[in-house]
């Protein structure tokens, strides 16, 4: 019986396919007869070829697929592409078996770029702006108002740029080899009420506060100063333009606010005079938040003499305010 087992083992070894692997195509799991030209990160694929049954690893341009997500047969490998790869587009596939390696040049693309936020929300020429998001690898350009910005640094999730001349307000667009994305919020102010000081003949007509400092250096959004208000319940920071601001050519009110202790979830109500409508802003404690309120949310006023930001939770609180104006 021992001789029989030895003979059987020898027979099995001699029949094992010792040819090196070859790779010929990539398909999806559902369309196995249709070769792909490219696919995205994180997808399940089938790699077709020959001599693949002894596959020990699948390498995507230096990133290995998880062993638990790799299934090999002689003519195919079913594998899940890792969620992040080295290159935004060109990520060759290398398969290693017991008897060799094979590489297939193939495009595995990162998703299109995504912008979650940028900070600060306004700035002067050459100010540095930080843009957060994802899939910025291979970034080819950033524009503000269609003007190219200088890229200071970039990673997959963050880009730092310099505000370009001619780009102090407008849409922020990031482009990578995969595509472009426009930020949901706009950058800058077309008409400024406050940044470091009151501008364009606007005056302070705030009321009922405990204290108000229009030149506080304690916590500026950018520049050197911000408005520091300690509210009583329902007190207000209010600005007035005697000549009245005509809203034609503008679409929204913008303001940056920093919520002091205890302000998380508390409200500030924005209103205008002549009376048109109101809109509530929700504060975030301990950080700056950039707000933009379309005119449609406050009744589409044709002119504005008074612009009011009123504490509206009945809560005595400290708030810092900066970058107030219209876009």
* Low-pLDDT windows of residues: 1-13
Query: Which structural category fits the helices and strands?
Result: mainly beta
Order of helices and strands: HEEEEEEEEEEEEEEEEEEEEEEEEEEEEE
Summed up, the helix count is 1
Mean of residue pLDDT values: 94
Q: Would you report the number of β strands?
A: 29
Overall helicity? under 10%
CATH level-two architecture of the largest domain: Sandwich
Name of the CATH first level of the largest domain: Mainly Beta
The geometry reads as elongated
Span between termini: 90 Å
Write up this protein.
The protein has 327 residues and is mainly beta. It folds into 3 domains: 15-109, Immunoglobulin-like, CATH 2.60.40.10; 114-182, Immunoglobulin-like, CATH 2.60.40.10; 191-326, Galactose-binding domain-like (Jelly Rolls, Sandwich), CATH 2.60.120. Helices cover 4% and strands 47% of the residues. It is built from 1 helix and 29 strands. It has one helix spanning 2-15, and strands at 22-27, 38-40, 44-50, 57-60, 63-64, 70-73, 76-80, 93-97, 100-104, 107-109, 114-119, 128-134, 141-144, 147-148, 150-154, 158-162, 172-175, 180-182, 191-194, 203-204, 211-216, 226-231, 236-246, 252-259, 267-273, 278-282, 288-294, 303-311, 317-326. Strands 19, 21, 22, 24, 27 and 29 form a 6-stranded antiparallel β-sheet that branches. Strands 20-23-28-25-26 form a 5-stranded antiparallel β-sheet, with no helix packed on it. β13 and β14 (147-148) form a beta hairpin. The radius of gyration is 30 Å and the shape is elongated. 31% of the residues are buried. Mean pLDDT is 94; it is low at 1-13.
């Amino acid at each position: 019986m021992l001789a029989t087992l030895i003979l059987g083992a020898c027979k099995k070894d001699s029949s094992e396919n010792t040819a090196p692997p070859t790779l010929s195509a990539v398909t999806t799991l559902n369309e196995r007869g249709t070769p792909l030209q490219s696919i995205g990160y994180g997808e399940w694929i089938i790699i077709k070829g020959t001599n693949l049954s002894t596959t020990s690893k699948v390498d995507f341009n230096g990133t290995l697929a998880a062993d638990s997500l790799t299934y090999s047969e002689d003519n195919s490998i079913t594998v899940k592409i890792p969620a992040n790869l080295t290159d935004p587009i060109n990520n060759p596939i290398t398969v290693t078996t017991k008897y060799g390696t094979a590489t297939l040049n193939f495009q595995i693309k990162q998703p299109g770029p995504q912008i979650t936020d940028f900070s600060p929300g306004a700035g002067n020429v050459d100010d540095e702006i930080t843009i957060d998001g994802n899939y910025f690898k291979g970034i080819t350009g950033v524009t503000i108002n269609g003007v190219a910005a200088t890229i200071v640094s970039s990673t997959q999730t963050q880009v730092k740029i310099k505000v370009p001349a001619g780009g102090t307000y407008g849409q922020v667009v990031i482009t990578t080899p995969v595509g472009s994305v426009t930020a949901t919020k706009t950058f800058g102010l077309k008409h400024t009420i406050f940044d470091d000081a009151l501008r364009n003949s606007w005056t302070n007509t705030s009321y009922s506060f405990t204290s108000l400092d229009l030149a506080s250096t304690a916590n500026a959004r950018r520049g050197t100063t911000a408005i520091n208000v300690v509210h009583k319940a329902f007190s207000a920071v209010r600005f007035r333009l005697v000549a009245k601001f005509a809203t034609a050519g503008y679409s929204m009110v913008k303001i940056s606010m920093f919520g002091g202790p205890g302000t998380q979830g508390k409200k500030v109500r924005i209103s205008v005079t002549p009376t048109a409508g109101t809109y509530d802003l929700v504060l975030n404690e301990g950080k700056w938040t950039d707000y933009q309120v379309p005119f449609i949310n406050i009744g589409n006023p044709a002119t504005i003499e008074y612009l009011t930001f009123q504490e509206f939770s009945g809560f005595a609180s400290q708030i810092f305010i900066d970058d107030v104006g219209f876009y």
